[in-house]
Amino acid sequence: MSTGINEQRQPPIGVDRPGFVPNPATVRALRARVARRLQGEGSHGVQRASLVAEEITAWAHERASRGDPSLSEQDERVLAAAVLAALAGLGGLQPLLERGDVENIHIHGHDQVFLELADGRLQRWPHAVAASDAELVELLEAMFARLGQTSREFSPARPIGNLRLPGGGPLGARLAAVREISGRPRVAIRRHRLAHTTLTDLHHQGSLDTDLLHFLQVAVAAGLNLLVTGGPYAGKTTLLRALCDEIPDREHIVTVEDDYELGLHLNPVKHPLVTPLEARTANAEGVGEVSLDDLLKQTLRHSPSRVVVGEVRGGEITALLRALGNGAAGGMGTLHAASARAVPDRIAALGQLATPPLPVEAAYRWTASALDLIVHVARRDHAGRRERFVTEIAEVGQVGDAAIPDLTSLFVPRPGDGRAVPASAPSPVLLARLEARGLDRGIFQHHHGRWDTHPWGDEDR
Prior knowledge:
The protein is α/β, with parallel strands linked by helices. Helices cover 32% and strands 22% of the residues. The chain has 3 domains: 20-65 and 73-87, no CATH class; 89-193, Beta-Lactamase (2-Layer Sandwich), CATH 3.30.450; 199-445, 3-Layer(aba) Sandwich (Rossmann fold), CATH 3.40.50.300. It has helices at residues 24-41, 46-66, 73-88, 94-97, 133-146, 199-205, 210-221, 236-244, 292-299, 317-324, 343-351, 360-370, 428-436, and strands at 14-15, 102-108, 113-117, 122-125, 160-165, 173-178, 186-191, 226-230, 253-257, 274-278, 306-312, 332-336, 373-382, 385-399, 405-413, 420-422. The chain is elongated and about 85 Å long. Residues 131-379 form the Bacterial type II secretion system protein E domain.
């Protein structure tokens, strides 16, 4: 009986085989040389790369004098990148973070590395990311101490840690690590691959059909408050980022996130007025924490046109509802939920985690007053490819006879593949708001949807 993906009888996992991987001992030795010179000469920035090139040239001459084979120019560039990565504190993770096709990196000990690609394939990386588990732990300790907003402890006393890495693209990557409690050190890294995504991009990739594209563009223009929901890695953040792209450039956007993932502040041409707020964990001494709840309470002091929240996972849901219900139009956020209809109960459950707990009845009332739409996304692996798409959209109404917000299904999952197709038009009040911004109500006559047939594209998460 098969016990896992390493079982011989299982179909083989694809293995990436780059032509040249630097010897970790060589990288460490060169890093030490450059570090000594940096300390002595006070060199930084571009000079650091020059020093690495000089040390590699000297090292290559030493090899030649011993009669060792020389490296190609390309191999020397790879070696230089590895040394620079070691200096930056990313070590053997750097080449994996730079791969544009990688979505998740799973490290189960220094020599068990698996890459989850954007199309859903699992690929074995045949090289260790450190010389031993002990060296991997040392690398992680150094990363937690130096790379975060605050110096954090990652030790036997604190064997669980989360960190945003500076590598992996303009938005960096998210690292989660454990030690001691799992036998070997385990690391999961999530790359934020798509820093700039539009609704048109998602339409071309198959996440939206033509009618959904039009509807969501109008919903943002009309300033509706909406929540993007779905399961893990269903594409919530990618869709939220694309929705934000529709916000007019004259508006002041305040983004609130545990880790910067939306990246609106990285595109000042499109969004010149963005206040990005990022939560901060406590430092090694246990002080300095700034929670998502703290940031949400701060947002209204910045006079935002729109408040956008990356993801809510706990009692800060009450602050989110206050922020979206304060009268500013067009607020957005994401939330884990099994379906659009599960959202009111999910919000009520999270409200119980607030201090003080939010009564369920109040959570329902706040949800009804703060939200206009719930946009639910789904993920499935089909025919060897990973697909992410909008599967339903619901209008949030007032609290009804059942004491919970009434939800009207505007788009529902299509039988067979789950892609969203029109079910019913919005309420007269909401329809008037949307038509004032150009909605074509005729889209609700296409009961089978208008999904285009094209190759599936990649999405972030």
